[in-house]
Amino acid sequence: MIEILSPTVAGIARARTLLLAGELVAFGTETVYGLGADATHAEAVARIFAAKDRPRFNPLICHYPDAELAFAHVRPNSMAQSLASLWPGPLSMVLPRRPDCPVAPLTGAGLDTLAVRVPAHETTEALLRATARPIAAPSANRSGRVSPTTAAHVVEDLQGRIAAVLDSGPCALGVESTVLDLTGPQPVLLRPGGITLEAIEAVIGAVAHEMPETSRPRSPGRLASHYAPQTPVRLNVTNVADTEALLAFGPEVPEARLTVNLSERGDLLEAAARLFQELRWLDAEAPRHGMVRIAVMPIPRTELGLAINDRLQRAAAPRPRS
Ligand code: TXA
Ligand code: MG
Fold first, then answer.
1. pLDDT for residue 89
2. What is the structure's pLDDT at 320?
3. CA 19 to mean position of chain CA atoms
4. 61 lines ligand 1 (CB under 6 A)
5. What is the Å distance from ligand 2's center to 165 Cα?
6. How far is the C-alpha of 321 from the C-alpha of 63, rounded, in Å?
7. Whole-model pTM?
């Protein structure tokens, strides 16, 4: 059963306890209901993807009670500093992560960037201050369904999959936040949303539109689909070559000179939580040990295994050299 929490001091305190214990709590914002987890807790974030039934990892927005706390985790440029005048509000800014950013790599789908947002909602702000953690929250719907704007929608969609929903009434806007990429010299609109382009352009001038995938290749590294290790990747490996580092899964592991196990007990949630950090670690370590490839053991294609396999397949796909 989902606990329905009221937007009171007691309800917020209960939501905080659950979030800090790594549980999922949905909450209302001015845009739509979000499915929240402690963004620094990798397994809690993995639970978000499991609850949503998404067959792939997409980067999540981190929520903060104010701009100062948001900018402690990312590096704002002068455009971002100016746009903070639109916060609190339905604007998510994609910015480079700071080196000491405590947000789990899975939250940003392994990217060097992070989307941050300060929602305009009293109860949300109180919750964010109470937890004192960045809260990762995609819209609180199952994959392929519409975004929820009431607590009842959340219950309908996620019954039995999450711990609680903080019922702060219907969402005022009903459309998601505008997502703006500020990592390049020119700002790029990634998703239209609650804050209009006009409002943004009034602050920082012209904004480019993300081109449809078919008409032009997107800048490498800008989007999740382009993140891949430098070291070539070979999948579904049962015998590891001398020149290969091994990304293992489960209790029975073939011989290799350099091995990282995503989950010795064969737990997909644990594997998902560790995937990006371990892949990056191997990518950095393998060449230092004279290894030319990352070999990956088979990972079951069930539950979170679907998203893990999707990401590994992208990492293994042939790509142009940069
Ligand atoms: O209004 C909202 O934004 C709601 C509420 C709960 O805050 N959240 C929401 O999250 O709509 P979600 O996960 O459904 O959509 C997040 C969007 C996705 O299109 C994702 O690709 C993009 O933001 N995004 C997040 N982080 C990104 C990053 N580092 N780079 C590029 N795009 C990013
Ligand atoms: Mg969504």
1. 98
2. 61
3. 16
4. yes
5. 17
6. 35
7. 0.92
